[in-house]
Automatic annotation (TrEMBL):
<keyword id="KW-0812">Transmembrane</keyword>
<dbReference type="InterPro" id="IPR000620">
    <property type="entry name" value="EamA_dom"/>
</dbReference>
<feature type="transmembrane region" description="Helical">
    <location>
        <begin position="186"/>
        <end position="208"/>
    </location>
</feature>
<feature type="transmembrane region" description="Helical">
    <location>
        <begin position="75"/>
        <end position="96"/>
    </location>
</feature>
<feature type="transmembrane region" description="Helical">
    <location>
        <begin position="20"/>
        <end position="38"/>
    </location>
</feature>
<feature type="domain" description="EamA">
    <location>
        <begin position="17"/>
        <end position="146"/>
    </location>
</feature>
<keyword id="KW-1133">Transmembrane helix</keyword>
<feature type="transmembrane region" description="Helical">
    <location>
        <begin position="244"/>
        <end position="263"/>
    </location>
</feature>
<feature type="transmembrane region" description="Helical">
    <location>
        <begin position="154"/>
        <end position="174"/>
    </location>
</feature>
<feature type="transmembrane region" description="Helical">
    <location>
        <begin position="102"/>
        <end position="123"/>
    </location>
</feature>
<feature type="domain" description="EamA">
    <location>
        <begin position="156"/>
        <end position="281"/>
    </location>
</feature>
<dbReference type="GO" id="GO:0016020">
    <property type="term" value="C:membrane"/>
</dbReference>
<dbReference type="Pfam" id="PF00892">
    <property type="entry name" value="EamA"/>
</dbReference>
<feature type="transmembrane region" description="Helical">
    <location>
        <begin position="214"/>
        <end position="232"/>
    </location>
</feature>
<protein>
    <submittedName>
        <fullName>Putative membrane protein</fullName>
    </submittedName>
</protein>
<feature type="transmembrane region" description="Helical">
    <location>
        <begin position="130"/>
        <end position="148"/>
    </location>
</feature>
<feature type="transmembrane region" description="Helical">
    <location>
        <begin position="44"/>
        <end position="63"/>
    </location>
</feature>
């Protein structure tokens, strides 16, 4: 007799996705805050090396004892996902260095639109009129945050959007990778590619933490990024690419609170209006996805 999932099992699956994603969003906010507060002599390359090499060490020590940590399914796609994910991180860190944290994070969370686009291009996922409207609203929110013009912070804005494009692609291909790979191996390849990209610069321009506070901040980046990435990768076992991205958009709220309350960042109507459109459009896309799968 074929097994039929019970209502309790289905409810657990529906609950697991949001819980994983919201937990990851909170931890990513903590990581972004630490990155924002790191001394200026730590460049994007140094911060990337701290996260990626530290992540490799943690994953190897905790999860890869007595087995080959590189053993996975569809190695070329794992490498590609690692490269695009690493590039996305570098772009976002650059944006965090150039823009207020709340602005950089909100701009970055335009990536549900790009996840929907890549879902259509790669998996031929249907994009209906309502989703097109949501994407248009989301991009209008981005335009409001740009104040409809390129300003002195244009480089930071461009970095955030490039990070969003690459993240949209990255979360989309996780759909294929998660079929035969767990969250650990997916993140391990991200850390490997990021380490290889940043190692040459860090060797030629080394920076050694000069105080216990800097050591603690580096450890904080590693701990929060590993935990957040594993939670997010696990969450994509229960969500489509744009659904997971919609849940992760809660990071914009967390970042806005941290930026305004603790970092004393300026408050403007652009942030609230643009952020509302971006997050609202992402949540609407998620809601539509739930309706269609019932």
């Amino acid at each position: 007799m074929p097994y039929t999932p019970t209502r309790t099992v289905l409810m657990d699956a529906r609950t697991a996705g949001p819980l994983f994603m919201l937990s990851a969003a909170l931890l990513f906010t903590l990581m972004s805050t630490i990155v924002k507060l790191m001394p200026e002599h730590y460049t994007v390359w140094h911060l990337g090396f701290i996260r990626c090499f530290g992540g490799m060490l943690v994953l190897t020590l905790v999860f890869s004892r007595k087995k080959n940590p590189f053993k996975g399914h569809n190695i070329p796609l794992l490498i590609l996902r690692g490269c695009t994910g690493s590039l996305a991180f570098f772009f976002v860190v650059s944006a965090l260095r150039l823009l207020p944290m709340s602005t950089a994070v909100v701009l970055f969370y335009s990536y549900p639109a790009f996840a929907a686009l890549f879902g259509f291009l790669i998996y031929k996922e249907q994009v209906n009129r309502f989703q097109i409207v949501c994407i248009g609203v989301l991009l209008a929110g981005v335009a409001i945050l740009f104040d409809f013009r390129l300003s002195a912070s244009a480089l930071g804005q461009a970095m955030a959007i490039m990070g969003a494009v690459l993240s949209g692609f990255t979360v989309t291909v996780i759909r294929t990778l998660r079929e035969h790979n767990g969250p650990v191996i997916i993140y391990f390849y991200f850390c490997t590619m990021g380490t290889l990209a940043t190692l040459p610069f860090c060797i030629t321009h080394p920076v050694i933490p000069g105080s216990a506070v800097e050591w603690a901040m580096g450890a904080g980046i590693i701990a929060t990024s590993v935990a957040a990435q594993l939670l997010m990768n696990q969450g994509f076992f229960f969500c489509k690419g744009f659904e997971g991205a919609a849940y992760m958009s809660s990071e914009t709220l967390f970042a806005a609170v941290v930026g305004i309350v603790f970092l004393m960042e300026p408050v403007s109507w652009h942030l609230f209006a643009g952020g509302l459109l971006i997050v609202g459009a992402g949540l609407a896309m998620h809601r539509l996805g739930r309706i269609q799968t019932k």
